[in-house]
Amino acid sequence: MKFKFEELVKATNAKVLLSTNTSGTFSICTDSRKINTCDIYIPLKGENFDGHDFIENAVLNGARGYFTSDETKIVSGAKFVLYVENTLIAYMQIALMFKKKINPITVAITGSSGKTTTKEMMASVLSESYKIHKTALNHNNEVGQCQTILSMPEDTEVLILEMGMRGLGEIELLSKYSEPDIALIINTGTTHIGRLGTVRNIAKAKCEISKYLHEEGLLIAHDTELIRKVNKFKGHTLYVSLESPELRDINLHQNSSDFVYKNSKYTLNIEGKHNIQNALFVINTALRLGMSAEKIAAGLAKFKPIEKRWEVLEISGLKIINDSYNSNPESLKAAISTFLSTQKPPRWLVLGDMKELGKQEKAYHKEAGEFLNKFKDVKLITVGELAKFIAKTTMHEHHCFSCNSEAAKFIKENVEAGSIILFKASRSMKFEEIIRELSEK
Q1: Given Cys at both, which of 54, 223, 305, 426 links 355, Cβ 3.0 to 4.6 Å?
Q2: Judgement on whether residues 296 and 202 belong to the same structural domain of the protein
Q3: Domain holding 82: CATH number?
Q4: For the domain that residue 200 is a member of, what is the CATH number?
Q5: Smallest Cα–Cα separation from 58: which of 89, 80, 83?
Q6: Do 125 and 158 lie in a common domain?
Q7: Is the domain of 107 the same as that of 72?
Q8: What are the pLDDT digits (tens) for 235-284?
Q9: Any domain includes 401
Q10: Is there a single domain that holds both residue 376 and residue 349?
Q11: What values do phi and psi take at 92, rounded to 5?
Q12: What gap in Å lies between CA 311 and CA 323, rounded to an integer?
């Protein structure tokens, strides 16, 4: 996508500090190392860097002009300079301007867990009837949203945005600069409770997704008492849960599940009731957009889990389910329940630390061990200083390690061929290291 100089000034309400050559059109670039001669550079600030430090480098690499939040930052060689108070907001304003040009139906998805799975499932279904564009991987913050929107093909009919957050106000900002038509709150849990303090605050943060949902839009929310209390959206809200009277005949199989919803049968190539719940949000979105049950079923049947999200692997005689993209108390319990209700012994759990749980982090890990006691015929391996508290409260055979290499060595030497292993941990635990070591002869 390319923009005229006047469009950029209008969209961002920028103050023109320099203007000697503004002819033609410009692409947006936030990386000074990847500048082309027809690019305009937007310097962003991160935790450990400030893009303003690289403005001179961007100009030397060919940028015709740049944005800045420092009125004194005039670099020799630039053809134009635009001042804005906040360069990230300017970036988001430009993305919204482009979105309005394309004018796709916009579906926004948030939740404490399962966002990316639901987004991918949504894409699989809606692509049966529409030209869709979606958030790449888990690029669900402000910068990722801008990159998603600005990379959208001009024939896009439905834009699917995943929205993450680490604190209050962040999802509201994402909603403001995307103006969704349909917003989904697929669940609320304890992820980021260390930052937000209470589950109620987490629910409030998730409900921000509807702040800029127009009155004729649709909010689809997980049906819990807490969400009903904190939801302030005055437009049409549809509440969804596994307790819906329209959901029946649930069958959980190894590596698949099927169910009947609103008198139509659907099949998923992934197990677990939590994934059926994710599917209910997708089905209701698709129905809202006029899709038939047959096309929805076809899209769901084509959906496949992405890497590290219930990814099934065969390694050295072991069946491995890699669900180690992230972990929190709710998603861990769902994974354990699904794994132990669908897989036959010999079974092992390899569980790592759950991060960002605040002062109660040890208690949440102990609860996981107590939850595990509801099941039989499973052995436990933990990795990390927090995960060892899961072992402290479980009655199952367990082995605790401080690092991935120790766990991998134990598995190689002690887990018999034919066993099935579930890997679950927060992303920072890097459980792919264990799987990689198991793959090595």
Answers
A1: 426
A2: yes
A3: 3.40.1390.10
A4: 3.40.1190.10
A5: 80
A6: yes
A7: no
A8: 999 999 999 999 999 999 888 999 999 999 999 998 889 999 999 999 99
A9: yes
A10: yes
A11: -70, -35
A12: 6
> Is the same domain home to 81 and 112?
no
Q: Tell me which H or E stretch contains 122.
A: helix 115-126
Q: For 201-236, what is each residue's pLDDT tens digit? A: 889 999 999 999 988 999 999 999 999 999 999 999
Indicate whether 169 and 265 sit together in one domain. Answer: yes
| CATH code (residue 331) | 3.90.190.20
Give 146-168 as a DSSP string. HHHHHT--TT--EEEEE---SST
The answer on 196 and 228 residing in a single domain is: yes
Quick one: CA torsion of 244, 247, 248, 250, rounded to 10 degrees? -110
Give the DSSP per-residue string, 192-251.
Answer: THHHH-SHHHHHHHHHGGGTT--TTSEEEEE--HHHHHH----SEEEEE-TT-TTEEEEE
Q: What is the rounded average pLDDT of the residues 348-361?
A: 93
Closest CA to 391 of 333, 349, 342: 349
For residues 75-93, give the mean pLDDT: 96
Sheet holding 379-383, edge to edge: 311-315, 318-322, 420-424, 347-352, 379-383, 398-401
**Residue 441 reports pLDDT greater than 70:** no
Return d(Cα 361, Cα 191) in angstroms, integer.
11
Residues 6+ apart with CB under 8 A from 271: 252, 253, 254, 255, 256, 257, 310, 338, 342
Q: Indicate the Cα dihedral angle 330, 336, 337, 342, nearest 10°.
A: 150
Does the pLDDT at position 144 exceed 90?
yes
Say whether both 57 and 113 belong to one domain: no
CA–CA distance, 318 with 340 (Å, rounded to integer): 16
Q: How many domains does the chain have?
A: 3
Range of the domain at 132: 103-302
Residue 12 lies in a domain: yes
For 286-301, write each residue's pLDDT tens digit.
999 999 999 999 999 9
For residue 346, the number of C-alpha atoms closer than 13 Å in the C-beta half-sphere is 11
- Identify each DSSP E strand in 20-146 by its residue range: 25-29, 39-41, 65-68, 80-83, 105-110, 132-134
Q: Is residue 387 part of a domain?
A: yes
Cα angle value 422/242/246 (rounded, 5°): 140
Burial classification of residue 413, based on how many CB atoms lie within 10 Å of its CB (0-12 exposed, 13-18 middle, 19 or more buried): exposed
d(CA 12, CA 91): 8
Looking at 86, 118, 144, the residue that finishes a domain is: 86
Residue 155 has pLDDT above 80, yes or no: yes
Do the domain assignments include residue 97?
A: no
Q: Is the peptide bond before 104 cis (omega within 30 degrees of 0)?
A: no
